[in-house]
Amino acid sequence: MIDSTVFENKLAAYFTLGCKLNFAETSSIGRLLAQQGIRKVRPGEKADICVINTCSVTELADKKCRQAIRRISKQHPGAFVVVTGCYAQLKPEEVAHIEGVDLVLGAEQKLDILQYLSDFKKQEEGTVITSATKDIRKFAPSCSAGDRTRHFLKVQDGCDYFCSYCTIPFARGRSRNGSIAQLTKQARSVAEQGGKEIVLTGVNIGDFGKSTGETFPDLIRALDEVEGIVRYRISSIEPNLITDEAIDFVAASKRFAPHFHIPLQSGSDEVLKLMRRRYDTALFAHKIEKIKQVMPDAFIGVDVIVGTRGETDEWFEKARTFIESLAISQLHVFSYSERPGTQALKIEHAVDPKTKHDRSNILLDISARKLHAFYESQIGKEKTVLFEHTRKEGLMHGFTENYVKVEIPFNSSLGNQTRRVRLNGWNDKRDALTVTILE
Ligand code: SF4
């Protein structure tokens, strides 16, 4: 039973670190609190409750979380500080010892936040930790809304893969998902609120269906029928799980954008084995070729990790050559970070920081060249842009269906609107294309 009297006249502040999934979940927590009359703070106001949703993907992410928690506690003196997310799940004791923290909410408990807030009173209790549950099974439906043009719809959570370098399965639990009926209902609700673009998010979304007996192709087929949504993007999907069937469906679909984000992690088969990934470079190359064959203008972003334990000079060079050969649009380059409790720590040969840095720069250079070439290939084409509300230096931005960033002089009537455009050429900063609006 929730005692709602404790929420009267309370203000809350929300902070999210890390991935799109965290943004979606913070939005859901915000909605729960708003239903109890807890208003979100405006700039300059002091909060009574601070909710900090953390990330733990690397050692650096942990450090940023600690800094953020300390900064936020100081900015809102006396506030009830709740820390949740992957860092809170993986290292609850460490989080509890940070000054100012009142409640550490584990992955299984985060959407029960109202119950915890109504039960615990600051000063009377010490820091309360709820992250002890290791068996995380609940699927917490989440969708971010209102704060961006794009809505992030969580379709899946957790992961059963246990790649050797990754702690996410420990932080988020086993693979599970919402049902197609529930997710299409959420998409309809986004459309009713005027939302036009939805990004499907999850930890391993190609694994969708584990807990409901459905499949990812079934999900995208059902979502494609939701009237009012202009476009969907599929966020990161494992190469072995994006089937040729799903690629063909996206190519022919009404609403799914020709935009893919596929983690490669290494372009060396030897390193992929050490990472315990479930594909090899031949399969990855086939997926890229298949996408480009049916959607020649598709934008393909690819995640890569450099400096994984065991990555010799020779294997990195193989990876570099393979990555160069791919018809992809951009790389997201990450430096390997040692994570306690992972199998990767048993691999001999840790790569030194300078070598990691050099390898990262080599791949960032390839990424810049590929992105430039992709944009150049789009100049002169007609595409559909969804413009965003934000105004910056008199300009506004938007993205085409195939994820080309465009820029026009600010026009408030175009925010969250789609327009057919011709892509003209680079802007002054060479980070977006200018356009002519056709209709
Ligand atoms: S697929 Fe691998 S890298 Fe991705 S979340 Fe699962 S274990 Fe981690």
Structural features, described:
This protein is an alpha/beta fold and 439 residues long. It has 3 domains: 4-129, Methylthiotransferase, N-terminal domain (Rossmann fold); 150-377, tm_1862 like domain (pyruvate-formate lyase- activating enzyme); 382-437, Beta Barrel (OB fold (Dihydrolipoamide Acetyltransferase, E2P)). Helix content is 33%, strand content 22%. It has 13 helices and 19 strands. The protein has helices at residues 20-35, 59-75, 86-90, 92-96, 113-119, 168-172, 180-192, 216-223, 244-252, 269-275, 281-294, 313-325, 353-378, and strands at 11-16, 39-40, 49-54, 80-85, 101-104, 128-129, 150-154, 156-157, 176-177, 197-201, 231-234, 259-265, 299-306, 330-335, 382-387, 395-400, 405-409, 418-426, 433-437. Strands 2-1-3-4-5-6 form a 6-stranded parallel beta sheet, with helices on both faces. A 5-stranded mixed beta barrel has the order 15-16-17-19-18. Helix 8 packs parallel to helix 9 (244-252). The longest helix has 26 residues, at 353-378. It is globular. The model has no long low-confidence stretch (mean pLDDT 93). The site of iron/sulfur cluster has 10 residues, from helix 6.
